[in-house]
Amino acid sequence: MLCYGIHHCHYGYNKRMETQTENPVRPPRFLPVLVVLFALLFFAMIAAAMRQKTADLPEDNLVGKVAPEFTVERLEPENRSVNVSLPDLLAYGKPVIINLWASWCGGCAAEADDLEQFWLEHRDDVTMIGIAIQDRREDALDFADRFHATYPLALDTGGRVGIDYAITGLPETLVLDSTGIVRHRFIGAVTRGQLATVVSRIGDAS
């Protein structure tokens, strides 16, 4: 009886397995629909977050307006104290490029060669100055020497330029027309091609 019972149990187990194999459990028919709905919801949430991030960006209130005046100290290796002001730069009657940078800024190093090449190619058409923000004179001079910068450089010793121009980080580059109106602001490293395009556009509009 014991043996029969065991065999009987085994037989019953096998029958149950055959029944399960013949009738496999299938996922609900609406499962693919749920997957699609969750995917659409996920992408909708991402899109909403991106729109909110864009909305939170500060509006550039300088573009289209007169650039704030400034007076900064020229960055001279001889340690001479020579000041230069925005009216001095505008007196040449050309578009003015203002590059805001620092020796400790990685993006500033990335754009340094492009700025120098742009200056060499367009020095007859523009006035240009690079103003070091929150920097030490020695470090700024080392930076200029390392990248062989020949365009005029200055030091914002009082820290007013960064505040008045409402910079959000470094580097930033502003392009002014010959009357002192800010026509474009580049946030982050800029290329000589980008600068040339904006300067050409300003020239065509004048």
Features of the shown structure:
single chain, 206 residues, alpha/beta, Glutaredoxin, 2 domains, seven-stranded mixed sheet, 7 helices, 48% helix, 16% strand, elongated, disordered N terminus
Query: What's the CATH H-level homologous superfamily of the largest domain?
Result: Glutaredoxin
Radius of gyration: 33 Å
- Tally of distinct domains: 2
Strand order of the largest sheet: 2-1-5-4-3-6-7
Report the end-to-end length measured between terminal Cα atoms: 109 Å
Structural class: alpha/beta
Run of helices and strands: HHEEHEHEHEHEEH
What is the fold-level CATH name, i.e. the topology of the largest domain? Glutaredoxin
Spans with pLDDT under 50 lasting ≥5 residues? 1-18, 47-58
Shape: elongated
β-strand amount: 15-25%
Regarding CATH, which class of the largest domain? Alpha Beta
Mean pLDDT: 83
Question: What's the CATH architecture of the largest domain?
Answer: 3-Layer(aba) Sandwich
The major sheet is characterized as: 7 strands, mixed
Continuous helix count: 7
Short description, anyone?
The protein has helices spanning 2-22, 31-56, 86-90, 106-122, 137-146, 160-164, 192-205, and strands at 71-74, 83-85, 96-101, 127-132, 153-155, 172-176, 182-187.
Structure report:
The protein has 206 residues and is of the alpha/beta class. It folds into 2 domains: 55 residues, no CATH class; 135 residues, Glutaredoxin. It has 7 helices and 7 strands. Strands 2-1-5-4-3-6-7 form a 7-stranded mixed β-sheet. Helix 4 packs across helix 7. It is elongated. The termini are far apart. The N terminus is likely disordered.
